[in-house]
Structures are given as structure tokens and as C-alpha cells.
Amino acid sequence: MGSGSNLCYQLKQKKDYTYMLEGKRHWPVSLHRVSAIANGGGSSSRENGATGGGGSSSEEEEKGWVHFVGIGGSGLSALAMLALKQGWKISGSDITWSNYMDALEKAGARLHIGHSSSHLQDKSKQCSVPNAVVVSSAIPQDNEEITFAHSLCIPLYKRGSWIAKITQGYNVIAVSGSHGKSTTTAMLAFVLCSLGDDITAIIGAKIPQFPDGGNAIAGHGPHFVLEADEYDECFLGISPSFAIITNIEWEHLDIFQDEASVQEAFRRFVMQIKPGGVLIACGDSPGSRTLFGALQQDKPATYEFSNEGFRKCVYFNSGCRIITYGLGNNNDWRAVSLMPNTKGGTDYVLLHAGIPMAKVSLHLSGAHNVLNSLAVIALVAALSAGQTNGYDVRYQLRTTQEVVKATCKYLEKFTGICRRFEFIGKTENCYVYDDYAHHPNEVQAVLQAARQRFVHRALWVVFQPHTYSRLAGLLQEFALAFKDADRVIITKVYAAREQNIFNISGKDLASSIIGPSADYIAELVSN
Description:
The protein has helices at 74-85, 99-107, 144-151, 159-166, 181-194, 259-270, 286-295, 367-385, 393-411, 440-453, 468-473, 475-479, 506-512; strands spanning 6-10, 19-21, 24-26, 35-39, 44-46, 65-69, 89-94, 110-113, 132-135, 156-158, 171-176, 200-202, 216-217, 223-227, 242-245, 278-282, 302-306, 309-316, 320-326, 333-340, 346-352, 355-361, 422-427, 430-434, 460-463, 487-490, 517-520.
């Protein structure tokens, strides 16, 4: 990962352990077994003759052909790249070109602009057709490629169904939540790779510190790290061994009619965690606490012995355990004494069960990234705890401290992902950052992070609302979200998959913003 000296880390243990999941024998993550090495680090068609980058060699037999409809999005592009790296022949289409498609084209995918049944016919092989077609949630069912595939009985998969298929046989580590999924998943994948775990991973954003700077890793170990998206209930097809919930809020208003429907989707998700698995959730999130209450109705809390005596532990769903993290006093893992650091990020002291464990120094600014890092620490500690002698409390505490120390070391090296407070450049003494925030709480969080980094500078914000349904349903919340800014410019709404049946525009938001001066400018760059 990146360039630089190799870092070697070794955790000592008397014995090696395996553990059982649904009758399959899996080796645990190599946190304690050997050493963990981090290497410092009509339509038009665009295609080339390259073979799948990072995938199978020419000597290996191709697994088959998968076509992706809507391949340019963050979700399907990651799935397509993983399939390429695993040796599949890949084609795909979308209505416009995206930067995700650049990497896919370079890796050997056959890509098309526009949708046509001809994209599902390979005339060089006697009109052979794909073995499977994977469809984005944003694609309507009357799409020409979908109807053609259906007419030929080609297996059709929505994104969630395809994820369920490709994760079979793995120990799935699923990162879910209304906000922070991509950053937390990327942090986790980066740390596990740095600790020597040969993971497979897919993430809904590009990660500059990944070997190819992309959004997918094709490993050979048992763990599959997955950004589990609640949109269109995609995450309901998987059965994770470990799951993270960063927070639960009313989001994706075109899918979920109210907060109760969001809660129900997340409840169904956690009930699919494998027996004996672990749910790691932010205890500061009101939505998460509501979920805890629903899960504990049928199973009261129990108590287990730990190094500081008997401690309350919450279980649900055939013995699955809940571990919490956050800034509040009642969490298992906590961050205290938060302070800005010279890197532009945040330093804090890590506590576990009230006991100081480590000092953490992040490159990333904002309290939300402190929470993201806590989720990663809790997850890696839970992975390692399953591989130690649980009857020797002093031994397990020592091992946990060693794992946490190593995890924090690599968290300090993580520099972030694309389009999450990403530095674009500097011009005329003005620092320009790009962020994908499109929910009021995300906007508030990233502006708090920007204000932390630039305490004494004017903060100008250019914001494009994302979808009419979100703007209409959360207009009052958006009006309060820009308080850390000095000046706000609102553009026209990015419609995505929607029609404006709400009779709302960016001008309505500009006139509603409370605090900073706000203007509406529909187009900032002329065509």
C-alpha cells in the first residue's frame, strides 16, 4: 500500500486456532499467527484489448461472462472490478461515462455508452451471451438490455442478489449505516491488509492507498469486507459473521417512507448475522439505540467476567453479541480528550471498558472520523478476541492491547478516500475540497471538520442538492446544516433517478438557509 519501508508486526500466542462457521473450516485473520506485512505502504462503444488487470493470467481459464447494466456507478463498478480481478470476462453499459469506468476499461472490461441488446451478444463467439446480467437499482425494469436478457432466460441479478451470491463461502464483515460506510469500510480494509490479512473487499469509493487506487481488492483469504448498502435493501441478501452499524437515520427517502421503515430494514439486517457473530454499533446514534431496544425485547442482558470484574454484555439472535462504540460514557469503546493535531486531523485517547488503551492520531478531521476509527478498532479487536483463550482474562487483555496498538498504528497512516473531504488543490490562496455529503447531518459533519482544519479562514460552500425527494423531505434540516459556513451557494438539484414531482428546487433551499448568507446559482460552469 503506497511506497516506503516494509513494516513488520508480530503478535505472540502459544497455539493456533481455527473456528467453525456453518460447517466450514476457516483460518482466522493473521493478527497473532505469523507476521503482518504492510508495504508502506444506439450507442457508442469504448473498449480495448487489455486482459483483466489484477485478474487471472492468460493461462487461467476464464470463469465466464458477466454483463453489468449501470456499470458506471460506485456500487456496480466495484463489483465489476472485483469480477475482473477474479478472472471473469466483463462488459457493461451506462448512459454516461464516469471516472469509475476509466479503471474498468484499463483493466479489460468492454464498455458501452447507452443501452442496447447488442451489448449482450458476442458475435466473435457465434453470438454467445452472458452467463449473468447484474442490474443497478437505478435501472428501470423496461430497460432494453433487461428485457433482452429475460427473453433468453439469462440469469438476472439485482445488485443485492449478486452480492449475496459472490459472498457465499466467505466470513463476511459488513459495514452498514446511514452515513460513514465508505470511509469506515476503507479504513477497515486498509488496516486488515496492513496487518497481513489477505482480504477480499468492495467499497463504494476509490481508495488512493489501495494498490491500484481503486474500489476493490481480490484476496485469497476467508474474509470478505463489504460496504453493505441499505439502499433498495441491498444488504438483506448477506449473512455476515461481523457487522458494523455506523448510525441509523432517515435517508434514501425515495425508498424508505419514514424512520420506522429504515429501522425495520436494519432490524432485518442484523437478524441475519450468523449465530455467534458480532454486531458493532455506534451507541451515540439515537437510531442505533432504538434498534438495540427492539433487539433486546426477547433476550435480556447477561453478564460475563472480564479483567475489571462482571460487566454487562448484550446478546441477541442465537447468541450474537452487541459491542458499542462512541463518545458517550456507556459505550464499550470510547474516545476521550479529542484535540486537533498538526496533521489537520484529530488526536484522542482510546478507552475500552473505561481503561485507557492507546493514544490515537488521525490524519482525518472531524468527530465523525473519530467514530469511524472506533468502529474499526472494535471490529479488529473482536476478530482477534475470537482467536484467543477466553478463559485466561489476563492473557486476552494483553492480546487485545497488542492488537489495538497495531491497529492504531495503521489508522494513523490512513489518509482518506476520494470525494470525502478530498483536497483538490489551491488557487489564489484558496484551498478547494470536494465532498460527497448529501444528507443534512453529513453536510454538518464535513463543515465541522473543515472548520476544525481552517479555524480562522472564511469557509465558502458550493452545494448541489442530491435528489428532489431528499431535499423536499429534509428541507428544514438542510436549512440548519450550514451554520459553520460563512457563505453558501446552492445549485440546481441533481435529479439522479427522479422526476421533480415535489415542485422544489435549489432556490427553495437557498432562501431557507439559517445563518450564513446564501445564494442560488443554477449553473456554475457553462456548457
